[in-house]
Amino acid sequence: MLSFGLSIFIILLLFIIFREYTNEKKYQAQRDKKRSKHAPKVKKTQDITSASATTIKSTPKKPLTSHALPEANYPQFTHQRLIEMELSNDEAKVFVQELIPQLEMQIPLIHKMLYLADFHQMERLTHSIKGSATNIGTGGVADLLVAFNTYLKKGTDIDIAKAYFEHLKQYTQELKIQYS
Fold it and tell me: How far is 141 from 170, CA to CA, in rounded Å?
């Protein structure tokens, strides 16, 4: 009976792994398709060396539209949520001090995914620390992570992601100073 139960468990586990694998492949295919739609289009140019070359007129260039980069105007981080759960101020500070190394560990990983422009992995990384930060407190890095993670779910503008990442580094430093 034990071996039958173990067999069922293993089969279910393999099924779950297979489903996750296929879902990830589907997501990657959709992401690649979405990115290929937004890829820069290259126009063919005329061969200037031909005998029938025409003069090239310069056309005024359109001004580049600026991205609406996110602003980081979040209130200072507070651990009031932990105080409301009846922890002492010192106990709450310990929880925040444990959050800081988690943030510092994720920042290089997010930076790597930013370099690779892997928005899905950035979303997964920010999601994990967003949960930790929002369970501990509000404002500052917690509010920033909520906004950053929400953007990464659908956004694909690398400049906006870079701006959020820079804000994340800044708010992490502020949190270290605030709780040191």
Answer: 9
Paired tokens of 73: 């105007």
Task: State the residue range of the domain holding 145.
Answer: 80-178
The predicted model scores a pTM of 0.62
Which of the 8 DSSP states describes residue 117?
A: T
Nearest to 136 by CA among 177, 88, 95: 95
> How do the pLDDT tens digits run along the chain, 180 residues long?
678 877 888 888 888 888 888 888 887 788 777 766 654 454 444 544 444 444 444 444 444 344 678 888 889 999 888 888 899 999 999 999 999 999 999 999 999 999 999 999 999 999 999 999 999 989 999 999 999 999 999 988 999 999 999 999 999 999 999 998
Our count of domains for the chain comes to: 1
